[in-house]
Amino acid sequence: MVRNPTTRVLVVDDHTTFAELLAGALDREPDLESVGHATTAAAGVAMFRDLRPELVLMDVQLPDATGFDATRQIMAMDPFARVIVLTAHAKPEFAGDALVAGACGFLAKDGTLAAMLAAVRTARPGHVAVDPDLMIHLIADAAAPREPAVRLSDRQLDVLALLADGEDVQHIAKELDISLSTCRSYVQSILIKLNAHSQLEAVVIAARLGLVTIGRPDRLSRDAHR
User: What are the residue boundaries of the HTH luxR-type domain, all occurrences included (predicted)?
Assistant: First the structure.
């Protein structure tokens, strides 16, 4: 009787209990086989090099490096390697990092065992499989509105808007009916909050953050350094 070939799987996770339970679940499947588990990125890469499993289940957070770093090293050794990244924290940027690193799966560690086994069986290079429940969470998180990290007062925003229009400090002071020294103080506080070295840089940073719309660039380039 000919035995069907098995998919040999390496588990890389620093939570020993989780890794052992997952390895045991793999060994109970007739078409899957655990070749062991590693608790660090370096050990995982070394075990992949020595054992050449068909698939790696890779945790994101490891003591010495991220699972993305280890995945990149594995893909450098074997471009056809199959790596599924496991995460305990569903973050949109993690899904992107997994894709860039070359992973072919991105799953939540608290998902169902059936979903994980299905991903192991269907994983293939060039395709990223994401658990449906995790995908819904990622989409909702990515679509959630976020306030700018930088907070400016209403008056600072007024000054910034006029800077974006290319107005100089003297005109802004007159426009807002404040003293020149007060206006300069507002400008200085804006530079500090935006970590900018000039008024021009402050306006560019603010525009990227969605705090302001740049108005007359020809005049801005002439006046913003005053």
Answer: 145-210
Which of the four pLDDT bands, split at 50, 70 and 90, describes residue 164?
confident
What CATH number was assigned to the domain covering residues 154-223?
A: 1.10.10.10
Percent of the chain at pLDDT above 70?
81
Buried b (16+ CB within 10 A) or exposed e, 129-159: bbbeebeeebeeeeeeeeeeeeebeeebebb
pLDDT, residue 154, reads 92
- Write down the pTM of the prediction: 0.60
* Nearest residue to 106 via CA among 114, 117, 96: 96
Per the CB < 8 A criterion, the answer to whether 91 and 134 are in contact is: no
| Predicted local distance difference test score (pLDDT) of residue 178 | 94
Domain boundaries, the chain: 7-143, 154-223
Give me the phi and psi of 212, to 5 degrees please. -155, 155
Asked if CATH classification 3.40.50.2300 holds for the domain at 7-143, the reply, yes or no, is: yes
